[in-house]
Automatic annotation (TrEMBL):
Coiled coil: none annotated. The gene is Cybb. Its cofactor is FAD. This is NADPH oxidase 2. GO terms for biological process: defense response; monoatomic ion transmembrane transport; superoxide anion generation. Residues 19-129 form the FAD-binding FR-type domain.
Length: 302
């Protein structure tokens, strides 16, 4: 038995040593941004840190807990000179981080007073393959929208730098959330992308739909009254917020009809139930003919 055990144990110990060494490297918090509804953005720098879109890191703040490590998706793009995470305050550890960063104080916080942070990673996810397709469907549910902040930022940087060499030609983005106010920072990113694409006369590059699933009759009535306004009353975007859940069968059939003969990447960050639905639709709407349309499903669950 020991012959079968010693090899994997040696590899495991090597991996733990590498992770311990990486976690001891110095991390500098360059900026702390407070977003609405108790969401903070930490912008950090670390020597030798290299990332790809959609990856995640483990974060430890010794001032809050000397042992706890928590995973966070990177919301910055590889083209930026820093890496960032967005943290929503929903528990004891995040509350402790919020206070340690001085976000509970009114006065300006000096950089040297910010807490020490340990970072392990980054670690890869399925979202890294987004640039391998010409057509992609990005589906984020709730907090699962965070990896696509990195993806959309990187797409914009690549588009501005050299659009002719960018293989990606069309993005269909779906955001399902119970309360958009909890992620106003992401709506701001969409607003910026929307305006910049219109300036370049390529508004069709990004097609997005926001579905508010936690709605009631009063919200629906308010939505109907303001539907004719130029911008959405909830997000401030030109695309109106939709209520309920998308009809995935219709969405897949529409996209398949618009892009015959294409390989379409479907990327999800969301719950297992939604993953099963999208995987099933990807199979149903893919043609047997190799020259036909094919949906390639990729997922990461939480």
């Amino acid at each position: 038995t020991w012959k079968w055990v010693v090899g994997p144990m040696f590899l495991y110990l090597c991996e733990r040593l590498v992770r311990f060494w990486r976690s001891q490297q110095k991390v500098v918090i360059t900026k702390v941004v407070i977003h609405p509804f108790k969401t903070i953005e930490l912008q950090m720098m670390k020597k030798g840190f290299k990332m790809e879109v959609g990856q995640y890191i483990f974060v430890k703040c010794p001032a809050v807990s000397k042992l706890e490590w928590h995973p966070f998706t990177l919301t910055s793009a590889p083209e930026e000179d820093y890496f960032s995470i967005h943290v929503r305050i929903v528990g004891d550890w995040t509350e402790g981080l919020f206070n340690a960063c001085g976000c509970d104080k009114q006065e300006f916080q000096e950089a040297w007073k910010l807490p020490k942070i340990a970072v392990d990673g980054p670690f890869g996810t399925a979202s890294e393959d987004v640039f391998s397709y010409e057509i992609v469907m990005l589906v984020g549910a709730g907090i699962g929208v965070t990896p696509f902040a990195s993806v959309l930022k990187s797409v914009w940087y690549k588009y501005c730098h050299d659009a002719t060499n960018l293989k990606l030609k069309k993005i269909y983005f779906y955001w399902l959330c119970r309360d958009t106010h909890a992620f106003e920072w992401f709506a701001d990113l969409l607003q910026s992308l929307e305006a910049q694409m219109q300036e370049r006369n390529n508004a069709e590059f990004l097609s997005y739909n926001i579905y508010l699933t936690g709605w009631d009759e009063s919200q629906a009535t308010h939505f109907a009254v303001h539907h004719e306004e130029e911008k959405d009353v909830i997000t401030g975007l030109k695309q109106k917020t939709l209520y309920g859940r998308p009809n995935w069968e219709n969405e897949f059939k529409t996209i398949a009809g618009q892009h015959p003969g294409s390989r379409i990447g479907v990327f999800l960050c969301g719950p297992e139930g939604l993953a099963d639905t999208l995987n099933k639709q990807s199979i149903i709407n893919s043609e047997a003919d190799p020259r036909g349309v094919h949906f390639i499903f990729n997922k990461e669950n939480f």
